[in-house]
Amino acid sequence: MSKNNKNTPNSKVVKKSQPPQQQKKQQQPIKPIKQQPIKQQPIKQQPTKQQQPTKQQQVKLPTEKTNKKVEEKEENNETNNPMGIEKELFEEISTLQVEIDNIGNKEMNQKLKLDLERDTQLSPLYAEREAILKSIPEFWSTCIFKHPILSALITDSKDISFLKHLNGFNVEMKENGNVKFTFTFSNNSFIKNKQIWKEYVFDTDGVSTSCSPIQWKNGNDITKKKEGEDPSFFSWFSDQDDLEIFDIFKHEIWMFPMDFYSKKVDE
User: What is the CA radius of gyration of the chain?
Assistant: First the structure.
């Protein structure tokens, strides 16, 4: 067959297949589009009530703590500054008061020193006086009965009967400034003690007292009163720091007993 028959109508055109490599070149495969990987956001799980406190609960704890501090601060302010004075004025007044207290304490220390010197000088005279007064029946009880304030503390006949056995009284001032009152009694139906005492203790914390225990005979404690009854004179022998009674015994009864013993009742 001649080469010219190649394009005859009845002839079939057969396409030559390309070798695998050429076919690959002609038919460029569609390159898949590289999709950017989607970053998956972690799914926020709703916290359960047991796993995580709610926002309201989270705020509540510090708020309670803050409120507590505020309450404590307000309480301290009310304690130190109960009238709500302006802070600067209150601090200024407080500073001045400290200075006043310091001067007062200095004066008290000086007075204490003078009292100690005086009592040291008077001690022999007090002892000599006490020896004489023992020969006078009911001397010290009479001084108490005639004192306008002490007599008001005597509330019933038992107080009077007991005090009539008082045959000795002494005031001792110690070097540290403490003062001890000692009462001596003759034999009586009220107590077993021959002496009972009360001591006033003065320190930087203030005033405190200590007393000897009273051994009442047959449970006859005259300081025990029914509700509504006036306390006994001997209730003073307890943990009371009444400075008025302290001053009366130390500066009046002890130093000037004859003024009260010789005093008329109606004076």
Answer: 52
What local confidence, expressed as pLDDT, does residue 1 receive?
Answer: 46
pLDDT of residue 8: 44
Q: Which of 41-45, 56-60, 122-126, 263-267 has the highest mean pLDDT?
A: 122-126
Identity of the amino acid at 143 = C
Query: CA triplet 197, 200, 201: central angle to 5 degrees?
Result: 130
Contact 155, 174 (CB under 8 A): no
Mean pLDDT of 120-131: 93
Average pLDDT over residues 58-69: 49
- Burial letters 126-142, b for 16+ CB under 10 A, else e: eeeeeeebeeeeebbbb
